Amino acid sequence: MGKRKRLVAEARKEASKSTYFAKLNDCPTSPRKMRIVADLVRGSEVFNALNTLKYSTQHASIKLEKLLKSAIANYEAKTGNRPDEIFCLLKKLW
User: For 18-28, what is each residue's pLDDT tens digit?
Assistant: First the structure.
């Protein structure tokens, strides 16, 4: 591997150490319905978002709650801390 490729790979590896994410595959929900639920919790604190998703009546909220719990578990595994003041940043993936 060349020197430039190695430097880029090392920089990418360092950036991934501080990134905590989760990905939901094979979710048979339309993007429009998922986006409506995601807009409810985008920008709110994590535990407020979990409460909102838990008591929402829409079917997409179940899948999004599972995704958010997975992201929290990934954060706790990498840092060893509990997320107290983390905000829910949902990227537009659709």
Answer: 777 788 888 88
